[in-house]
Design goal:
The protein is mainly α. The chain is built from 6 helices and 2 strands; from the N terminus they run ααααααββ. A two-stranded antiparallel ribbon has the order 1-2. α2 packs antiparallel against α6 and α4 runs antiparallel to α6. The protein starts with a helix and ends with a strand. The relative contact order is 0.09.
Length: about 230
């Protein structure tokens, strides 16, 4: 009986560490499975978030940028069309008003230039032509081309007026070309800043300024102003 008891005690003593080891192994296996499934779920969630973010950002990446080259071509083909491409519709009336004024000046100066030119030729050439003696009204003088030749202006006055309106006509052509280039430059500049994010928050920082030691700057202090926009 004593021997059996000792044997049972020894058997229980030897089997006790084995059962604990198996339990520890089982718990470790359960923890490993839990960690594995948790890692898999987290990876799956990250993958879903990444796919969702890619789907959200894909349309913005596929958005075509505003082309300054197109704005330049449109403005060169038809003044004001580049401003329409940049959605600056309020500038189109200004552009067409400027070109309308230039066309008016070109038309007016051209009209007066040609009238004074014809009047000067009539007074300087036609009225000084000496016709041979013939029967009356056989070689009659032609009628004056316009009112400038009828008002008794001298040759020098008509020549001065002709040169004056010729200069104005040339200046009108020059200003028309400058306006044409300015509308193109304006369209290109607006196209460059079309996608630029302009923030209304203006920040002005005021910091004290002290010259560094060892510099040749005279002793003193100042303010450092930094404007951020």
């Amino acid at each position: 009986m004593i021997i059996r008891t000792i044997y049972i005690y020894n058997q229980q003593k030897q089997s006790l560490p084995i059962s604990l080891q198996q339990k520890v192994r089982g718990l470790c296996f359960v923890f490993m499975l839990f960690a594995l499934f948790a890692d898999f779920g987290e990876s799956k969630a990250i993958a879903q978030d990444t796919a969702t973010s890619v789907q959200k950002t894909a349309p913005t990446e596929l958005k075509k940028p505003h082309s300054p080259r197109k704005a330049m071509i449109y403005s060169l083909v038809l003044p004001g069309l580049g401003q329409a491409y940049n959605h600056k519709y309020w500038k189109m009336p200004i552009v067409y008003a400027g070109f309308g004024a230039m066309i008016y000046f070109i038309h007016t100066n051209s009209k007066y230039y040609h009238e004074l030119k014809d009047a000067h030729e009539y007074v300087a050439v036609t009225m000084k032509t000496v016709y041979p003696p013939t029967p009356p009204n056989y070689f009659p003088y032609p009628d004056p081309p316009n009112d400038w030749a009828k008002q008794g202006y001298t040759e020098e006055q008509l020549l001065e007026g002709r040169d004056y309106y010729r200069r104005n006509l040339e200046v009108s052509y020059i200003f028309t070309g400058v306006l044409y280039l300015l509308t193109t430059v304006d369209a290109v500049v607006d196209a460059h800043f079309f996608d630029y994010n302009i923030n209304d928050d203006l920040t002005l920082k005021v910091n004290p300024w002290i010259p560094a030691l060892g510099t040749n700057t005279a002793s003193g202090m100042g303010l450092n102003l930094t404007l951020r926009f």
